[in-house]
Amino acid sequence: MVLLAHLVLSLSLALCSSAAVVKRQCAETLNDAMTVANRLQEHYFVASTGQYTGGSLWTDANTYEDLHNLMLATGGNEFSAVADESTIGRAALNPSTNWRNVFGGSNDDAGWIVLSLWKMADYKVNRGLDASAFLAGARKIYDIIAAEWDNTCGGGVWWSTEHTYKNAVTNELFLLLSAEGFLRERNNTYLDNANKSWNWLKNSGMRNSEGLWNDGLDFSTCKNNGQTTWTYNQGVIASGLGALFVATGDSSLLDQAEITLDAVVAHITDNNILRESCDNAQAGGAVCNQDQQIFKGIWTKHVQYYLDSANDQNRVNKYQSFLGSQASGVFHFGMSASKDIGSVWYAPDQGGSIFTPKTSASGLAAFVSAAKYGPCQF
Fold first, then answer.
1. How far, in Å, CA of 71 to CA of 6, rounded?
2. Does the keyword Ribonucleoprotein belong to this entry (predicted)?
3. N or C: which end of the chain has fewer CB within 10 A?
4. Same structural domain for residues 259 and 312?
């Protein structure tokens, strides 16, 4: 669709205790997002299977979420068929679906699916469509994840049903799902789980002295394993704490989130742009694997969700230029002539960037986040 002008302002302001947040979307940035989304669907999406060529269950779930996040921002319906065509949408629409078989024991994959089902449901509800099957599927999956909590290492949800690892992202997702689930369902079980999850996370030792979350716990010692501080770990904790703030009114949770967001800006960037340890613009260097290729976009998306929850213009202002830098990196360094997005954002590609549906979805998320909270020119 053709979007209007450069900046769309709503007629109303949302008030919060600190500063009013101006509700707007930058149309120029949404145009960039739409260009990437159209290319993504044309190049990678197979409607007959509901999957992306070269994708995976959890990265596809994030991509469906990104498309619906985009349509909620633009008001458009270009990808309205994706929800029902998608693998997880089809599963939700089938009342006989055994969700355990869908995600195969991967509790982190299950969490991403819930987020995707919720976003697709939000789109449907916004357009006056029936979303009950998607919401019912999300509830069933949430209950499966919640049952994976036990007292090993003092608490936490297992990464998988094999019960060999407790890691940051699975438990950050459980925090987010629980807090957001409470806001959606108003069921105190969700809130109890959110509080329990944050209490365990903050005492787990997985957040290091820099304020960043390492990958997980050493199973033999229940101590921080010191593994990579991936960007997505730092984003999901922020959106989870933001949702818990909305549920409880405890503003100290926002300060906790920003310890980590500020650490990302300080420690996981190059040229003021996110750079994973596996990113290398030069040919022959490190290459991010099939999971890692989408991490940066997840960070930007969950910063958007965090700022939605914080609802404070001062906090928006703090990260506005940085979100713009990510969109700028995607546009100037990540985008190919064919409008695919590569894995490297921080510098011009010199043969090291790779191009997959995950990297394009990652760039798409960066544009959608920047359209809402970044500057309109980058």
1. 17
2. no
3. N
4. no
Residues 172 and 244 in one domain: yes
Measured CA angle at 304 (ends 299, 309), to 5 deg: 125
317 and 241 together in one domain? no
Coil, helix or strand for 331? Answer: helix
Give yes or no for a contact between 1 and 78, defined as CB atoms under 8 angstroms apart: yes
DSSP 3-state of 341: strand
Residue 196 gets the label, from left (phi > 0), alpha (psi -120 to 50) or beta, of alpha
> In this structure, are 228 and 321 located in the same domain?
no
The pTM of this model reads 0.95
Q: Where is 38: in which H helix or E strand?
A: helix 27-44
| CB-count burial class (<10 Å; 0-12, 13-18, 19+) for 210 | middle
Q: Based on the domain organization, do 256 and 182 belong to the same domain?
A: yes
Per DSSP bridges, beta strands 51-52 and 8-14 are unpaired
Nearest to 341 by CA among 65, 32, 119, 59: 32
Residue at 243 is within a domain: yes
pLDDT tens digits along 312-368: 999 999 999 999 999 999 999 999 999 999 999 999 999 999 999 999 999 999 999
- The two tokens of residue 98 are 């055994």
At 84, which amino acid appears? D
Q: For residues 37 and 133, what is the distance between their CA atoms, to the nearest angstrom?
A: 25
